[in-house]
Specification:
By secondary structure, this protein is of the alpha/beta class. Helix content is 46%, strand content 19%. It folds into two domains: 7-222, Spore Coat Polysaccharide Biosynthesis Protein SpsA, Chain A (Alpha-Beta Complex), CATH 3.90.550.10; 235-337. The protein is built from eleven helices and twelve strands. Strands 1, 2, 5, 6, 7, 8, 9, 10, 11 and 12 form a ten-stranded mixed beta sheet that branches. A two-stranded antiparallel ribbon has the order 3-4.
Length: 338
């Protein structure tokens, strides 16, 4: 009878042949070897196979064999929504490991990443249910900065629920690892969100367990032109990304209210963060008279539907006062100059 691995590496893939071998190689180079790799590819929609068109699925199976890694490449069931969140959830459910470690197909781990995780899980036992470390952002050639960009708000074994509600997500999915038993206490990555499905997941985790926050840099996070983490993009790509961001942030708020995970005061803290996010963008755009972008954000807010309506009055009231305040300040400066 085969012994279950200690770690399961969960990797969603889609048209990933260019970068996949680098990611797999970084897993094979781990100092800690007791692991399996579960690679999940997009499968079907309406009964039609819409998986990768560049041979990613076949390559994934070959790479696992070539690097002598336990595990398998599977396709996401057609009954599940499309997207990385859905693929991760499916991979977690079929994984055999005690711990679930996440890596995207274009990112890399440093060799002692898994051994560091195991060390802290052993040290803190059941009190610790989740772990993350810092990462370096790179474009495949040079390093561009650190993730999270502003540093972790806390380090060590911590209850991070308040920080996640008041300041947004600071947990890099590429370095995240959770006990499978804790994962099963949550609803996993939200499968209806294009953005923030990872924030939703760690928000749930933070209500169930403590995180160990390791400030050391143990993963490399690739920025590329065709991904959601891109920095250089076409104008249309930026607009499309912003629409997802604003719509899904309001949807996440609605899901948090409905979930029962969070108390009234916690929802108010989340509301403050989301309101501030919208007010900052809208105030800048209105003062700059970028009306097309204002319209796109308004449409994104409307698309969120009833999940976002409770925040509308608060957001627009604050935007109004913020814009008036800036206009008065600008007028005073102009009068002084004259």
């Amino acid at each position: 009878m085969n012994k279950s691995p200690i770690f399961s590496v969960i990797m969603p893939v889609y048209n990933s042949t260019i970068y996949l071998e680098e990611a797999i190689k970084s897993i094979a180079k781990q100092n800690f070897k007791d692991l399996e790799v579960i690679i999940i590819e997009e499968e079907a929609e309406d009964g039609k196979d819409i998986g990768s068109t560049d041979g990613t699925f076949e390559l994934a199976g070959d790479l696992l064999k070539n690097y002598a890694l336990a595990g398998k490449a599977v396709k996401r069931p057609s009954s599940s929504p499309k997207g990385a969140g859905s693929c991760r959830n499916y991979g977690c459910r079929i994984a055999n490991g005690q711990f679930l470690a996440f890596l995207d197909s274009d990112d890399l781990w440093l060799p002692d990443h898994i051994s560091n995780i195991y060390k802290y899980f052993e040290e803190y036992g059941q009190e610790m249910g989740a772990y993350c470390a810092g990462g370096i952002i790179f474009d495949g050639v040079k390093e561009l900065g650190k993730m999270p960009h502003y540093g972790f708000p806390c380090i060590g074994l911590q209850d991070i629920s308040e920080q996640l509600l008041s300041g947004g997500n600071f947990i890099p999915t590429q370095s995240l690892c959770v006990r499978k038993e804790v994962f099963l206490m949550t609803n996993g990555f939200h499968e209806l969100l294009k953005c923030y499905e990872d924030w939703w997941f760690v928000l749930q985790l933070s209500k169930k367990t403590k995180f160990y926050i390791n400030p050391d840099t143990l993963c490399r996070i690739r920025v590329r032109g065709d991904g959601l983490s891109r920095t250089n993009d076409t104008e249309n790509g930026k607009i499309k990304m912003s629409s997802w961001m604003f719509t899904d942030m309001l949807r996440l708020r609605g899901f948090a209210v409905k979930s029962g995970f969070f108390r009234g005061l916690e929802i108010k803290v989340l509301d403050n963060y989301i309101t501030g996010f919208f007010v900052l963008f809208l105030s800048d755009l209105i003062c700059g008279r970028v009306w097309i972008e204002v319209g796109r954000i308004f449409k994104a807010m409307y698309t969120a539907g009833r999940l976002g309506f409770p925040l509308w009055p608060r957001i627009w009231r604050k935007v109004y006062f913020n814009v008036v305040k800036r206009a008065v300040k600008k007028l005073k400066v102009n009068l002084n100059l004259n």
